Amino acid sequence: MVPRYARPAMTALWAPEAKYRIWFEIEAHATDALAELGVVPRDAARALWDWWATDPKIDVERIDAIEAVTKHDVIAFLTWVAENVGDQARFMHQGMTSSDVLDTCLAVQLARASDILLEDIDNLLSALSAKAHEHKLTPTIGRSHGIHAEPVTFGLKVATYYAEFQRNRERLLAARADVATCAISGAVGTFANIDPRVEQHVADKLGLTIEPVSTQVIPRDRHAMFFATLGVIASSIERLATEVRHLQRTEVLEAEEYFSPGQKGSSAMPHKRNPVLTENLTGLARLVRSAVTPAMENVALWHERDISHSSVERFIGPDATITLDFALARLTGVVEKLVVYPERMRKNLDRMGGLVHSQRVLLALTQAGVSREDAYRLVQRNAMQVWESDGRLSLLELLKADPEVTAALTPSQIEERFDLDYHFKHVDTIFERVFGA
Fold first, then answer.
1. Distance between CA 377 and CA 390 in Å, rounded?
2. Which of 15, 205, 281, 305 lies 20 to 30 Å (CA to CA) from residue 185?
3. Does residue 1 have a pLDDT over 80?
């Protein structure tokens, strides 16, 4: 985790203190359930919670010192608790194994991380909706292969991202539900030394569902899907960031990142205004996606368990969620402050002498009785003259001067096909599909 790209709430979730607090809750809730079942004395569970009520400082240094000797993190934690609680602490962890604590804790952390990310997405959706509605009918050029295609509106461009992040929200909700499972099933997952009702009790207390069948560990296909979902969200971030970067190019300059007073774009060139935030987001997206392949490879563990997944998750759990949290917040700021240039959009739209209306002329010719092959040839032959003139010639004027074209269409019929508003007649329909009535 790099502090430069981290925000407090998500970072705190992965701090050692937070982890140990979740470990304690798992152990104490399990002890409660064991007491209810008569397996351990009720005083044992009460002693744990009485100590916890004093709001003890989590002594990370002491736990680390114990682990340096035991070479086992869960045992080190249990030993530290016993040092503070006393004899009653011996009833903790009855019939449990380390994975019960570690995997259930990770499920809690990933669920809570999901909640933060869902809030981030909601903020981004709000910003995208506002920008889309603001520019619902702002004409701009649509591009395919980076080349002028046909007119679109900037609001429609933004609406595509809103719809995409709405899908991402649904994906994350599903991934959260899939990964938020509790396993308190003991060695090799058979419940031989602990009652399944303990697992249910802990799951209820921590807001998790029970793992239907664990092999001592929660199956890692759940985690693979979770991190794959984060990777998809990161790719959506990069897609929007890339669009802004292209729009900010000097030759295009239809929109750009907000450039604040006092900001500097280059140490050498005072004129520069670079898309640094969206370039940064492109890089951060790559980092989030880098967690996906290791998460996939964690699925294939040996037999009932091994710990080849453990070191991986100690990295990708914090790094992927912290980075994605930061990236979503940064992207929201970019969208909210995005500077849009409608006049430049219109200038670019008109730059190539009306070529963007070629399809409408093609269709009109076919409807007037010209074969599609001949109609394409007629329109293309005039369009290429405009293209080669770099937009100095007018497609409309060339078509009106072409006898083969005017044999099928009157000048007014040709002019009608150059109506910009024609392309926007279904914008309301699309907006209703995306945003609702």
1. 20
2. 15
3. no
179 φ, ψ to 5°? -95, -15
Q: Residue 234's closest CA among 128, 304, 324?
A: 324
Q: DSSP for 404-433, please give it.
A: HHHTTS-HHHHHHTT-GGGGGTTHHHHHHH
Provide the CB-side half-sphere exposure for 366 (13 A, CA): 11
Model pLDDT, residue 350: 95
Q: Are 365 and 406 in contact (CB under 8 A)?
A: no
Whether 237 contacts 285, CB under 8 Å: yes
| Helix segments in 291-340, DSSP class H | 292-297, 308-337
Query: Which amino acid is residue 202, in one-letter code?
Result: V
Asked whether the beta carbons of 141 and 356 are under 8 A apart, the reply is yes
pLDDT tens, position by position, 36-69 = 999 999 999 999 999 999 999 999 999 999 999 9
The pLDDT of residue 165 is 98
Is 99 among the catalytic positions?
no
Mean pLDDT across 266-273:
94
**β-bridge partners, 181:** 209
Q: Put residue 191 in one of left, alpha, beta given phi > 0 → left and psi -120 to 50 → alpha.
A: left
**Distance between CA atoms of residues 202 and 32, nearest Å:** 9
* Alpha-carbon 246 to chain mean position: 21
**What does R_g of the chain's alpha carbons equal in angstroms?**
30
Nearest CA among 286, 260, 267 for reference residue 339:
260
The reply to whether 236 belongs to the active site is no
pLDDT digits (tens, 9 = 90+) for 352-408: 999 999 999 999 999 999 999 999 999 999 999 999 999 999 999 999 999 999 999
Those residues whose C-beta lies under 8 Å from the C-beta of residue 332, and which sit 6 or more positions away, are 120, 123, 124, 127
Structure token pair of residue 324: 């994605």
Residue in 98, 129, 145, 290 annotated catalytic: 145
